[in-house]
Design brief:
Number of domains: 1
CATH superfamily: Transcription Factor, Ets-1
Number of strands: 0
Order of helices and strands: HHHHHH
Pfam family, one: SAM_2
CATH architecture: Orthogonal Bundle
Protein name: SAM domain-containing protein
Structural class: mainly alpha
InterPro entries: Aveugle-like_SAM_dom, SAM, SAM/pointed_sf, SAM_domain-containing_protein
């Protein structure tokens, strides 16, 4: 039984490592990995554009429809899909930040 527990822990750990890195610190490679996961059908096209424009995690969070269009992603549906994924990522990051803040404030009581 303990060996099974270890195996399940090992499987979970790599995912936690990825999540622990804030998006603001993502490299272009990290962004491309994210694209591959969330935009699997078009990720090659997107990755080329994102690499060419040096889109890091910080830049990813600030993308707009207009910026994507200037980067060469011409189809509106594709831009909307990317922006939808970015929005979800932003929400996840905000939740993560709030959780970290909450953990920090449970140790300190404000008066």
């Amino acid at each position: 039984k303990s060996q099974l527990d270890l195996v399940s822990m090992e499987k979970k750990t790599p995912g936690h490592v990825k999540l622990s890195k804030p998006v603001a610190l993502w490299t272009v490679q990290d962004v491309c990995k994210w694209l591959k996961k969330h935009c699997p059908n078009q990720h090659q096209i997107y990755s080329d554009a994102f690499k060419q424009h040096d889109i890091t995690g910080r830049a990813l969070m600030r993308l707009t429809d207009r910026k994507l269009e200037r980067m060469g992603i011409i189809q509106e549906a594709q831009r909307q899909h990317i922006l939808q994924q970015v929005l979800q990522l932003r929400v996840r990051e905000e939740v993560r930040t709030l959780q970290l803040l909450t953990q920090g404030t449970t140790q300190h009581t404000f008066h």
